[in-house]
Amino acid sequence: MKRRFIYDRVVGPIVALLTQGITPEKIALSLAFGIVLGIFPVLGSTTILCAAAALIFRLNLPAIQLVNYLIYPLQLFFLLPFIRLGEILYRAAPLQLSLAQMLAMARADLPHAVASLWLAGAHAVSAWLLIGPPAILLLYFLLSRALRRVAASSGLRSNTAEVA
Q1: Rounded CA separation 123/121 (Å)
Q2: Taking a C-beta distance cutoff of 8 angstroms, is the pair 5, 144 a contact?
Q3: Is 0.70 topped by the overall pTM?
């Protein structure tokens, strides 16, 4: 049941993109950006970031947004580690709040939460800026290799030269 759901919601649409003539490399870049931008540590910003990346780099907008939405739980999972890494980078005192407490603050009084947590957010963004670009490159490399194999095993032709 789970396998079918994952295939129908994730794998199937990606294979469909391959059959539409979109290159494995372009799909891999769309997925890599969707994953890494999807964990950007500012809640509510990832849809706009993914759309901007799709427009700037001429990526597949449905693919990047699909991954962005699927990755959302990881954004919450990585929020506190990004804050902690940022605190280490800036040698700042650790924030004494849990993720649940931060989310409760945001739900109760968003302007107050933003005012209280802006420095922690800046630390998290700084940490993401260190990790994000190399992660996009690594994911692109791994995903493009995997998608080229999928395309080859499916009998699909890639009209691009081998990258990296």
Answers
A1: 5
A2: no
A3: yes
